[in-house]
Amino acid sequence: MTGAAVVLLAEEVHSPAGAAAFAAARTIAGGDVRTLVLAAREPAGDLPAMGLLEVAVLPGPGTDDGDTWYNAARALLGDAPPPVVVFAAGPLSDAVAARLAGALGFSPVVDVDALEVHDGVLIIERSAFGGKVLHRLRAVPTGVVLAMVGSGEVIGPPPSSPTHVRHVTPVAGPLTEVANVPAPPVGLQAARVVVAGGRGVGEAGFLQVEKLAGQLDAAVGASRAAVDAGWARPDHQVGLTGQTVAPDVYLAIGISGASQHLAGMSRSHVVLAVNTDRAAPMADAADVAFIGDWHALWPFLEELLSSRNPEGPVVTVMGDGTGWSPRGGTRSDHDGAGPIAKDGSRGRS
User: Fold this and answer.
1) Are strands 159-160 and 47-48 parallel, antiparallel or unpaired?
2) Per-residue pLDDT averaged across 28-55, rounded?
3) 329 Rama class: left (phi>0) / alpha (psi -120 to 50) / beta
4) Is residue 179 part of a domain?
């Protein structure tokens, strides 16, 4: 139908959002796709790609800077960009996508959940208000910049060797200061397990959340309240105003479950919650919920993790009276009051 370009950071090419970006480009343009990757260093091996694969190597930590990434993307796209440009959704890429669309005179659509092509017209779906509203947009596939949300169910293209590797020196932007912040050990969007903390754990408790994530080889997530309090960096925030995740396991500790947060983790395969309020939306959204003070659960988790076989499952759910109930629609109080039945095959009511 039309040509398309997929523009990704090197760390996004293996992520669910990256796979969704490739799938969207394939739906729109068939085989007429270019893959443009921005990296801090030359790739050591092949990268997932469609069509012509070009890699721009930026000096220093430039890919953490929106101005640097934007200028490098403009350089890669050249004077005759394809009519459709696809990004992987994320705080940085959304901003770059919108800025690029403005510079090219294209229409930006970010946080896209799905798209189809009917009679030469793009049908674009994106959710809003915590998933309560589904926007369905129609667009001509000419002059569009998209940022795709990953579901964790889309398989990316096979690896390919770069056709061209360019060493790019981007034009300096208007930034007056650049702060280099160390990246989290595991990227949120690519993580199989996410351990997230909220207002209910407190500042000292958030350190325990980070420790638990390290023991599980998991990524650290946070609610907006935890980020606003300064306990977690903004790039750890999960939700509509943060990152959208789709892990195998999402463990929410002390998070009430505002609609914008639930929207950001709604694609998680299994949701575990620890909360003192049995009426909290997060407790109701969880497959398994521990209703009680997280301090009461911590000794059990510490003992379980210390005795875990390193080659065994990352997360084990026990039904031995500790307050955890097996998946299948139950919650349990840690004081032994018994399970509270829930309906729904995933325990959501």
Assistant:
1) antiparallel
2) 78
3) left
4) no
